[in-house]
Amino acid sequence: MADVHLPVFDIPFPLRGSPHVVYAREVNLERLRSHGMLATDEALEWYLSWDMAQLAGYGYPYADRDELALGVDQMAFFFLFDDQFDGPLGRCPERVAAVCGELIDVLFTPLRQRRRGESPLVSFFGSLWERSVRGMAPSWCARAAHNWEYYLAAYVGEAMDRVGGAVPGMEHFLQVRRGMAGTSTLMDYGERIGGFLVPPAVFHTPQLRMMRQVATDVPIFCNDVYSVVKEEPRGDVDNAVLVVQREQNLCRERALDRVRDLAMARIEVFVELERQLPDVCSGLSLGDEGRHAVDRYVDAMKAWMRGYHQWETETHRYAAEATVPPEAPNFAEDLLHHDGPRPTGP
C-alpha cells in the first residue's frame, strides 16, 4: 500500500477523547489475563500495538472510567475474535458456525448453567455480556442480544464467501459486513455506556434507522480502505474496495477513491437526516428527557464515525510492517480451543 494513494476521509464531526484511557487500558489488561489471554510477550506486544483503549476513548468520550473500561473490553473482544478466523478455522464454515453458535448460546444462557472449561474468548465474552446487561431495561437487553447474534453469525457468511473465492456483489457484501462490523452493537453500547435510552417510538423512525445505517457503513468503508492490503492476500473477499474494483472495473487507486466517495455521500445523508430530527421529536411530543436521549444518541454515532477513523490512522494494526504473511495465522494466541477453569473474577 506504500505506493498506492490512500484517500482522505474528511469526516465533519468533532474528534473527542477520554481522560480515562490509561485507567481503562490497565483494567482491560488485567481482565484479559484473568481469562487466560495475553499469556506470552508476543501476544501482549501485538495486542498493545492496536491500542484498544484509545479506540474506546475516541468512540465513547462521554463515558466515566468504569464504563470506558467496559467499552475497551468490547473493542478487545471484537478484534481478538476477528483475528481467530485469519487461519485454517476461517476456511471451514461448519467449524465457524459451531464456534459462533457457542458464543450466541452465551447470550441466552444464565451464567450458572454455562459449561465449565470454556475457551478464553467464550469465557471473556460471557463476562462482558453479564456486565453489559446489569441494570439495563429488558427492551435494551433484547435488542443488544439480537445485534450480538447478527454480528457473530455473520462470520459464517464470511467463511462461506472466503471458501467460494469470488468477490461478491455490493448487496451481498453489505449483508455480511454490516453484521461483522458490529456497529449496531456499538450503538447499543453508546446508550449503555452513556447511561441513556432512546425511546422506542423515535428509535425506529425512518430518520434514526437510516442514520444508524450510515453510522454502520461509514466505518466499514473507511476500514476496508485501510485493511485491503492485509485481507486480499489472505483470500478475504468481503471488502468494499474489492467489490467496487470488480463491479466498476476500476484500478486499485480509483477503487479506493470510489469507496471514500461512498462514505462521504452517506455522511451527507446523515447530516440532512439530523436536520429533520427536531420535527420528528415534536411530532412524537417527546419530553425533555426523550429529546436529550436522541441528541446524545446522535452525538454517539458521530463520535464513533469520527473516532474510529482517527484510530485507524494511528494504530499499528494496519501498518504495512504489521502484516503477517498470508500462509501464517494472523494471531498470537489460539483463544477458541483451550479448555481451562472459568475465572473467578469479573
TrEMBL record:
Protein name: Terpene synthase
Keyword Magnesium: yes
Organism encoding this protein: Streptomyces durocortorensis
Names of the cofactor(s): Mg(2+)
One family name in Pfam for this protein: Terpene_syn_C_2
Record keywords, A-Z: Lyase, Magnesium, Metal-binding
EC number: 4.2.3.-
Organism superkingdom: Bacteria
Sequence similarity: Belongs to the terpene synthase family.
